[in-house]
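Structure request: 4Fe-4S ferredoxin, Dechloromonas denitrificans.
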Amino acid sequence: MNTPTPQKPKKPAMSIEKAQKARRKFLQSLGLAGGVIGLSLLGYIPVSSAKTPRLRPPGALNESDFLSSCIKCGQCVQVCPVQAIKLGDLNDGFGVGVPYIDAREQACDFSCDAVQCVLACPTGSLTYKKPDFLKISDGAKLAAAPILKAKEKDAESTLNLKERIGVARLARPESCLAVQGKPFKGQTRGAAFTGKMRYMDVDRWKPIPIRDHPYDLELCDLCVQACPVKNALELRPIKGADGVERMTPVVLEPCVGCGVCEMICPAEPAAIVVDARAPWKA
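Returned structure:
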């Protein structure tokens, strides 16, 4: 005699009212997500929720013009030899796909020589020269074309940039090793740091991890050594309150705001930082 197979109890059918409620909730969530993404792509969220100015790639237009003209195509990201350019997401409030640079993690060291991100930009959001109808921000215009140290001996040694993207600043002089009169030896950001930079004594065209290039300095001047722009940063003597003469980094007018000094600084947090879109003040 065959024993009948026990039947699993059937789940009670969802009521029409509950089904409609679940559907409305799903459609509301879908609409909200689509609206957020749409606003981000249009540039509204970057404008309304930005709290800290982001460092933009070289040649970026003024922030509002940049956000409205950038189509978030990612071409600038693809051509950067040190992967300095990142794309923002909803979490940082700068919209989906808006390019920016986190100098502490990876600065622009101009390893490409010609500023390839500007050449790759299809919309003019990154440009060598602004159209006449766009105003140059006060303090953004460079007095002269910056000389790239790596190209100093070339027939054409300058970068084709008219405006800076920020200005470096000694934000924490008390933690600066130069101000303290201290040396530096070893890997500037430790063995785990993934940042890259080109070294002319290694390979002009191939940036290497900074951790693979240890230093041995009697007095720390890493920011000055690493700065890719000639005469943008130098050490100068200062006399402290105790009457002792020490050296301090001094930012000069040719600074373009690339962020290499902030990336290379061994202090944690960095003693020297770049203020995005900050004007030059003599």
